Amino acid sequence: MNSSSCCINNILEVINVLQCQAEKVDDIPNTCDRPFLGSAGSSNAFVYNTRPITLYTSNNTLFEAPYTLDGQTGTSSVFRVEKVTNETATLRVLAPNPDTTSTFPYVKTDSFIIVNTNCVCAVRCLPDTFVDCV
After folding, report:
1. What is the pTM of this model?
2. Dihedral through CA 70, CA 128, CA 133, CA 84, nearest 10?
3. By CB distance 3.0 to 4.6 Å, which of 1, 8, 30, 94 could disulfide with 78?
């Protein structure tokens, strides 16, 4: 077993819990271990519901997965944690937002991957955001 898998699992579990319990709070620096998701603008705005992540393998390769969105296919390296168990994580593939006027960079896809966290060496958290319908 990869000695980092427990650490990776713990980080992904925290992210998953935070996404499930998103609430309004003041902004503080965007880091993986920030204890809450940030708000989308003023205190009257809706709350961010996603802490997007990227994953890196042992040879420092950015992990990517295929997706289909509105009949178009592509690959993405940005994911939303959906479930974490033992040494695996179920991730939703996020696609670049086709609406270039939107302030939110990603949209959900119906593409999922299950990752063995023993194969993940690094997790990079991207700035919190709102993803519609997740």
Report:
1. 0.83
2. 100
3. 94
Q: How many CA atoms lie within 13 A of 56 on its CB side?
A: 10
Classify the C-alpha dihedral 110-4-54-40 as positive or negative: positive
Burial class (CB in 10 A: 0-12, 13-18, 19+), 75: exposed
Domain boundaries, the chain: 5-125
The per-residue pLDDT for range 33-83, each reduced to its tens digit, is 666 666 555 554 567 899 999 999 988 999 999 999 999 999 999 999 999
